[in-house]
Amino acid sequence: METTWDPAKREKVLADHKVDFGKIKDTFEDPFAIEDIDDVHSSTEETRFTIIGLTREYGLVFLAFNRIYDS
Questions:
Q1: Beta-carbon neighbour count of residue 71 at 10 Å?
Q2: Is the Cα torsion angle 57, 50, 21, 17 positive or negative in sign?
Q3: Spatial separation of the C-alpha atoms in residues 17 and 34, rounded to whole Å
Q4: How far apart are alpha carbons 24 and 39 in whole angstroms?
Q5: pTM of the predicted model as reported, rounded to 2 decimal places
Q6: Half-sphere exposure of 1 toward its Cβ, with a 13 Å CA cutoff?
Q7: Sorting pLDDT into bands at 50, 70 and 90, what band is 21?
Q8: pLDDT reported for residue 70
Q9: From the CB of residue 24, how many other CB atoms can be counted at a distance below 10 Å?
Q10: Long-range contact list for 52-56, CB < 8 A, 24+ apart?
């Protein structure tokens, strides 16, 4: 899976939480990760997801994200 992120959002998360998006991509490789739809923050235009999984850099993380599918 290819991952991309908004550079401004990356900088904000890095400043606020000391977490670099580039170092949490392996969350999606965790076979025991728990992924779910975030009904609270989803809309008719965008489905949001959450995942809790392990990373090599930070250990256990919680991540909110959206998927963009190529047509």
A1: 2
A2: negative
A3: 21
A4: 23
A5: 0.79
A6: 11
A7: confident
A8: 61
A9: 21
A10: 53/27, 53/28, 54/26, 54/27, 54/30, 55/23, 55/24, 55/26, 55/27, 55/30, 56/23, 56/26
- pLDDT in the model for residue 5: 79
Tokens of residue 69, six digits: 């599918």
Q: Which residue has the tokens 């939480």?
A: 17
Per DSSP, the three-state class of 12 is helix
Bridge-based pairing state of the strands 48-55 and 34-37:
antiparallel
Three-state DSSP state, 57? coil
What does the chain come to in residues? 71
